[in-house]
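Structure ticket #2291
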Amino acid sequence: MNNINLSSLSEGESGTVAELYNTGDMRRRLMDIGLIKGTHITCLHKSPTGDPTAYLIRGAVIALRKKDSEKILILNSQPNTP
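Resolution: structure written out below.
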């Protein structure tokens, strides 16, 4: 089992949310878009500078800043297979 923060995922890798360490309004926003424990998430694209990054969350593409994605713990990251 591999535990990493969301910002560590490379393009094409995915995992399951284990814990949100965000607080306040950002935590509420993430939960409102469905980013809760057990949610499957895939890294789709990192900008050339690495910030922000686009993720596939429950069928929607969401861009998150690195400072926010660093506070999301992911379990079992693995590359997507066709």
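Closing remark: The chain has one domain: 3-79.
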